[in-house]
Specification:
- The chain contains 1 helix and 9 strands, in the order αβββββββββ.
- With 117 residues, the protein is an alpha+beta fold.
- It has a single domain, classed as Gamma-B Crystallin, domain 1, CATH 2.60.20.
- Strands 1-3-2-5-8 form a 5-stranded antiparallel β-sheet, with no helix packed on it. It has a 4-stranded antiparallel β-sheet with strand order 4-9-6-7, with no helix packed on it.
Amino acid sequence: MRNSLRKVLATGAVALAAVVTVPAGPAYAINGVACRNNPLVDEFLYVNGHCFANGGTMAVAIYGVETIWSGNNRVGITYIDDLGGPSGGMLLDKWRMWDFSDDGHDRIHKVTSISIY
């Protein structure tokens, strides 16, 4: 009986150690949502025809981006401005729009990730 109890306690200790030492990964709740007729009045993150909601980070591949609208979100965007160029990033506060034509560009090449805070 004592050996059985020792084995059960040892197995339980190993299982508990595994649960305690393995950190939980981050929860990615961000997801794509349907854009409405006028995305600039939406509370969603709008990236060139794509809308996103909820907090988190998501890898994306959105090409030829002209406009980003933060809606009711603080957002971080990682992008490649020109094909073969370096990666860049920016943060937008709530209710802000970034129009790339304002920076002398027609479009940026690719948005590679978005984060909603």
